[in-house]
Amino acid sequence: MGVRIQNTASGRMGVITLADDSDSNEVIFFGEVFDKFRQKVKEDELLVLEVQLRARGGGRTANGEYEGAGEARASIRAVNALDLAEARNRFARGVRLTCNGASSGGRLRDLLAPYRSGRCPVSVVYVNRGAACEIDLGDNWRVNLHDDLIKSLSDWLSPENVKIVYNETVSRES
Fold it and tell me: What percent of the chain lies above the pLDDT cut of 70?
């Protein structure tokens, strides 16, 4: 919902307000973390945040009774911020390309070549009327999942034939 910057005794910090229909929370970027990710923390920018949660309020008094019932909230402190491209490269387990006999291996090589030396494995699912198989390309063909690569593969094979896999338990047929 919003981003604000505050000056504190220990330096500047960024505060992101997240909200849905039922509640809102603030994610705090303190000191060095704020300085490191300042350029990414903007309104209307999608980020994947790694955070630490700490409960606050609603604790027990000395006699064991709860105080501030209903007021317990989590303090959310950012430790890392990834834009979508960074998150895709960090969390993707592979990219699966589906094609048929009309696709050219030379064209695939040309599209992948500028993005090689990445972490993401590539597999090719070949399907025709009589058979289907999946071939995992070797480690030399691991790629960086840059937006331009995904767009060029989608333009060539069509978007439904380019799938980024995030969960290794996804069936080969999905």
Answer: 83
pLDDT at 15: 87
The letter for the amino acid at 109 is: R
**Amino acid of residue 55:** A
Q: Kind and range of the H or E element at 152?
A: helix 147-157
Could you tell me if 145 and 120 are in contact, meaning their C-beta atoms sit under 8 angstroms apart?
Answer: yes
pTM: 0.66
3-state DSSP assignment of residue 9 = coil
- And the tokens for 7? 């000056």
**Helix, strand, coil tally for the chain in percent (to 5):** 25, 40, 35
Assess contact for 53 and 76: CB atoms under 8 A: yes
DSSP structure class, residue 19: E
Residue 127 burial class via C-beta count within 10 angstroms: exposed 0-12, middle 13-18, buried 19 and up: middle
Whether residue 123 contacts residue 137, with contact meaning beta carbons closer than 8 Å, is answered with yes
132 has pLDDT over 80: yes
Residue 110 DSSP code = H
Residue pair 172/108 in contact (Cβ under 8 Å)? The answer is: no
Q: For 78-118, what is each residue's pLDDT tens digit?
A: 889 998 888 998 899 999 999 886 666 789 999 999 999 89
